[in-house]
Amino acid sequence: MLRRMRGRWWIAAIEPHKTTDVVALPKGNIDRGEQPEATAQREIREETGVEASLIRKLTDVKYFYVRSWDNGERVFKVVSFYLFAYRGGTIDQIAQAMRKEVRRAFWLALDEAPERLSYKGEKEVARLAQKYVDEQVKNDVPRGT
What we know:
Layout: E1 2-5, E2 8-16, H1 36-48, E3 50-66, E4 74-89, E5 102-109, H2 113-116, H3 120-140
Antiparallel strand pairs: 1-2, 2-5, 3-4
């Protein structure tokens, strides 16, 4: 989710509660009957406390992980990332029940995100968001200036 403040672009990031020193993007599971875009919007609201409007899909990140519970099964996962624009609300004002999942939500400078985010796929998502911003700014510059 993008927001322009103090002359810079920012994205909403979270520190998951169960881990330390991890900076991530909001994400979660699709509820029954829910569309992926609606899931992304809901997860932003639940995990960060802010409202956002869909701009477009950015990419799918595919990876394997090994369950740390149950039987240690290897799981293939696809996470779809969408670009949203900030609409309102205060970052980190989330429901107390959500604190089991999110230690804190905060604004992260977009140009710092590829270095600060913890996961390879999410670093690439930040680069794609930066590319989108750069192209929009370039296209909004009046000709002849």
